[in-house]
Amino acid sequence: MTFVGWIQIVTFFALVAVTAPPVGIFMGRVFMGERTFLHPVLEPIERGFYWLAGVDSNKGQDWRAYVVAMLMFSVVGFLSLYALLRFQAGLPLNPSGFGQVSPDMAFNTAISFLTNTNWQSYSGESTMSHLSQMAGLTVHNFLSAATGIALAIALTRAFARSQMRELGNFWVDLTRCTLYILLPLSIVIALALILLGLPQTLLPWVKVTTLEGIQQTLSMGPVASQIAIKQLGTNGGGFFNANSAHPFESPNAWTNLIEMWALLVIGFGLTFTFGRMVGDKRQGYVLAAVMAVLLVSGSIAAYVAESSGNPIVTAAGVDPSLGNMEGKEVRFGTALSSTFAAITTGTSCGAVNSMHDSFTPLGGMVPLFLIELGEVLPGGVGSGLYGILVFAIIAVFVAGLMVGRTPEYLGKKIGAREMKLAVLAILILPVSILGLTAIAAVLDAGKAGPLNTGPHGFSEILYAFSSATGNNGSAFAGLTASTPFYNVMLAIAMLLGRFAYIVPMMAIAGSIATKIKTPIAAGTFPTDNSLFVGLVIGVILITGGLQFFPALALGPIAEHFMMMAGHLSP
């Protein structure tokens, strides 16, 4: 660990802390129907979309109608992307002559980008045409992110309103999120990335001559536009196989900083949106504090682990002064690589600037555990907010049991129905992650995937299903997942992690919205102070620890003790 490394980490999180509140306030104005500086230009376009689609922007939807609209939109999105990938060979903007994507790969990829997971079992520069990258993957980066944010706003309205069934209009929320938030920010970020060296062209490749006089062909394409929304929407799908470790996706420290900032700004900003919409900014501060404490702790833990290095490698004569640099880019170093790993798994993004498979056992356990905590730190855009609100509901229920009062959150009484639905939602992760991992670990098709055997091979399988269920998309790169078995099984995990969670969450929203919003009284358990911050953190950690510690003990923890004893994982 170095002083410069700590300064880099502190500076980055300070930048997020300064910029997230104004972004969150702006998003609150958009979703509350207030005018912004973008309305004179974008409002006519917004009305035009409603007219073309036949949408009445003044008509609200209850939770069932909201969910049905979201599911219908998702089905159409899946079918269109699947068809595009299957038939890309005969479509324009395919200068490299890429063929059809196999059925299982197209199925996996379509589900992946639909669910905001962006798990990629392929190499983008050698598999996807420019049209597939732009009209397929990049478009779904916008739409899946906007869908998550819309759902979070619907749950926020449930707490803000009293005795109402309507949670807003899915089509309106989707349109406003894309038009006023994601698109303008993506344009600004893309332009900044272009100025800093990212390519943005329709050329399929360029031929260059190296300093040694060797000719090489470098893949090119519309990279900057995809990377902007990949980070901003916490999608993670890279244009190139190496993702943000590729010099065309992140050539220097400045692009790395911008991409890291884009990962967090909307997720943290939505907590301030929540505070503004429910009429109590302190509630937003509490959620932001919970996210920040756990995420910063994860970043520090990863940095400490990677800075400590690998004693086996050190014994082989490698200079340990830089820590564990295996799988990392020299231009980013240990500090920013470790921080990137923590925030990309804390945000349900999956973009990487280093290979998690090459981390030390405990360093690799940090991103794995952050995914398994529920992807709420701050999670995917939107999904992180509604995920942490489910934990907050459980926390006030626990507090109510301790003080002997009916639990309340923001003036809404939490009853048996809400608790059953909340528990159902959080059980989706362990059922999918542990259940599917167990299946893959015993079947021959599953055991053929890991590059390693022993604890590290188990970690590769566990990480894959954690990433897919958590809609993250990052991977322990040692797993060969481009097989029909893993393409189908991981797609099932993605669907469960996204939609099996959304339905009970929206049912909670529908139930809470119809309840009377009671004023805070002297006996109300406070949810706007440090005590509640600690309580929510405790619920998240205890839930994650109880569910996943046995599996972690079989994987990274066992491997750590092997490493300390001088044994390499086979």
Descriptive report:
It is a single chain. By secondary structure, the protein is an all-alpha fold. It has a domain at 23-271. It is built from 19 helices and four strands. The strands form two sheets. Strands 1-2 form a two-stranded antiparallel sheet. A hairpin with a 2-residue loop joins β3 (408-409) and β4. The protein is globular. It starts with a helix and ends in a 6-residue tail after the last helix. The model has no long low-confidence stretch (mean pLDDT 93).
User: What structural category characterises the helix and strand content?
Assistant: mainly alpha
N-C termini distance: 29 Å
Mean pLDDT: 93
Give the tally of β-strands.
4
Beta-strand percent range: under 5%
Give the overall shape.
globular
Spatial ordering of strands, largest sheet: 1-2
Oligomer: single chain
Brief synopsis:
The chain has helices at residues 3-31, 39-53, 63-86, 103-114, 124-127, 130-160, 170-195, 223-232, 253-277, 281-308, 311-315, 333-346, 361-372, 383-403, 416-442, 444-447, 454-469, 484-513, 530-564; strands at 205-209, 215-219, 408-409, 412-413. The protein is an all-alpha fold and 570 residues long.
